[in-house]
Structures are given as structure tokens and as C-alpha cells.
């Protein structure tokens, strides 16, 4: 019986020691319910301190070994540079590349493109940029897939791709003062949009249509699936031929096409602005189409004049209120509208007339009947590009 009792005592002692050892390493050890933190024994406090110390030692050892590994790897591979040594040179060769130091800040550029558009690629433009701004860091984004790119398009009021948005650091480079006119500031100076038309980067694809406002010279239903917007000049001989061709093609598309005329007078023609102002004054009295037809028909006649007498004569022949028309024309009532057209043309990179939008297809110069038919067929069979006003209505 004594032997059995002794054996039981031995098992209990071993079990107590095992439980104590387990509790020493148990992270979830809790203070007994009857014992507050202040009443913890010195032995319990010591155990916790040892555990914390062990964790700290493991952490520091890991950091040391990691840094030692990197240093040794760099020592044997002869790679990696110290700040002190880099300060002594402007050129470094590493990883099969030559790294050149610049005092200019790093400039982040977002290149917006459309992978499905062969004319929207940005590689050539980026090579050109790096010759002028060697510290640019470029990231590309597809506007047809990337949500961030779509947000940037809307925020920066961009109408075509490729497009390039620069970080504010572009304003800190030494050549910016000379190139400032090539950029449009947005987002309170935090970003700058490159005016691609001014540097000769061609439009690859338009992603929106020109504005179609309530005061525009419009014919056709606003619900028509095809929007035709024409930038033209009444004194431009090429515009005369294209206008005639376009009007003939529109005759068979009633109810399917909305036509919008935007006068874009060119400074090379002396009567260009006056003729455009006269057409707007006729539009004020509801006779724009008739007056525009007459201006193109008699282009050779009025373009030789030096005053506005012919324009007033045409207004009387169409039964317009002569007094109101003369007041409108002499006071250049719609000069502001023509200026808005010029700004919009620049925004859409339009530098020549005639230029015609058929939804997202653009035609310029001498436009043939076949080219117009093809553009109309494409627009009627496919999804149209929405104007800014249509997007707002949604």
C-alpha cells in the first residue's frame, strides 16, 4: 500500500511539472480568477519577461541575418552601391544598363491608349518625350478596360487617344518655361495634360463627340442614331464642294441623322468671319440652312467684296427682318460663339476645314460621296459615340 501510494504521488508530481512547463510557453496564459494582475507571483512575471525577451531576440536575429545575406550577396556579386560612392559619379553601369544621374525631378507620366486601336500606340511619342524630359517614368493604361483611365479621361476632359497626363513635377524642370504653352493645367496644378495636336502627335481615336448645344445650327432629330458635326468655313473653296456632297448624301437619311454646323473662320480669308457672323444672324431668324446654301452658291460673288452689303442683300432676298439682321451683323453679336468654336476645334485637334464627324469617324479635306456613305453605314450599324450632353442626361 505504501508502494502504491508513493507511485501515485510520483505521477501527480510529474503531471504538475508538465503542466507548469506547458504553461511557461503557453501564450494564452491567463491570471487565475481569484488573482488580480497586481497579485501575480514573481515567478509568473519572470516567465513573461523571458518570453518577451526571446521574441525580441528572434526578431533582431532575423533582421540581422537578412541584412547580412544581402550584404554578402552584394559583396560576392559586386552589385549594389553605397550613397557615398554614388555621389562621386554621374554614370553607373549595372544590370546590363547604363544609369545616368540628373538633377531634374522624376516626372510620372500616364500614357492613355486603346489596345484595340492600331493608331493609338504611344511608343514613338514616349521616345520623343524622353529626349526632352529624360527623367520621365511612364505607365500605360487602356481607356477601354481600365476604370482609373476612364476617371482620368473625365477629370482631364480628354477627347481623344493617345493622351498623356504629367505629374506636377513637369513644372519644376528647367525647360518647362519654354514648353509651358504645350500643356494644360488641371486638378489645381497637380497634373498637366500634353496638348498633343500642338506637338504633332496625330489623333488615333476620338472617345467623345463635339458639343451639340441648344443654340447650334441643327437640322434633324436629336434622337437620331447618327450625329454629323461639321467644322467649315464659308469662304473656303474646298468647304464648298464638301458641303454640297454632304447635303446630297443627307437627303436619303431623314430621321436617321442629326446635322450640326459649326463655323470655323480661317484668318487667310478676308470675308470669312463676316460670312460666318451673317449665317449666325440668319439662324437667329430661323433661316440658317437657306442662308448657308446661298452663301456657298454665291461664294465667288461675295468673297470679292470688302464690306457686308452682299450679306445684307442676301438676308432681304430670303425675307429676313433687314433691320434686326443688320444690327446683329454690324454689332458682331455672335463673335463669342465663333470664338467658342475655335476653342473646341483646338480641343479636338482640328487645324483644317472642312472636318466632319460622323459619330466617332472623322473625315477631313475633300470628302467624297463614297467616304460619306461608308461612314454613315458604319455609324448606323454600330454603337454611336455620345456627345458630352448625352452623357450628362444619363
Structural features, described:
With 394 residues, the protein is of the alpha+beta class. It has two domains: 101-206, Glutaredoxin (3-Layer(aba) Sandwich), CATH 3.40.30; 217-393, Glutaredoxin (3-Layer(aba) Sandwich). The chain has helices at 2-25, 42-77, 83-86, 123-132, 147-155, 176-179, 237-250, 272-284, 288-297, 299-302, 309-317, 322-330, 335-347, 369-381, 388-393, and strands spanning 91-94, 97-100, 107-113, 136-142, 160-161, 163-167, 183-186, 191-194, 205-206, 217-219, 226-232, 257-263, 355-358, 361-364. The longest helix is centred in the first third of the chain and has 36 residues, at 42-77. The protein is elongated and about 110 Å long. The model is unreliable at 1-8, 17-35 and 384-391 (pLDDT under 50).
Mean pLDDT: 85
Q: Which stretches are poorly predicted, pLDDT < 50 over at least 5 residues?
A: 1-8, 17-35, 384-391
The tally of helices reads: 15
> Structural class of the secondary structure composition?
alpha+beta
Principal-axes geometry comes out as: elongated
**Count of DSSP E strands?**
14
Number of domains in the coordinates?
2
Measured by DSSP, the beta-strand proportion falls in 15-25%
CATH topology description of the largest domain: Glutaredoxin
> Biggest β-sheet: count, sense, barrel?
5 strands, mixed
CATH 4th-level superfamily of the largest domain: Glutaredoxin
Q: What oligomerization state is this entry in?
A: single chain
Mind telling me the CATH class of the largest domain?
Alpha Beta
How far from one another are the termini?
95 Å
Give, in spatial order, the strands making up the sheet with the most strands: 4-3-6-8-7
Question: How large, in whole angstroms, is the Cα Rg?
Answer: 38 Å
Give the helix proportion (percent range).
40-55%
| SSE ordering | HHHEEEHEHEEHEEEEEHEHHHHHHEEHH
Question: What is the level-2 CATH architecture name of the largest domain?
Answer: 3-Layer(aba) Sandwich
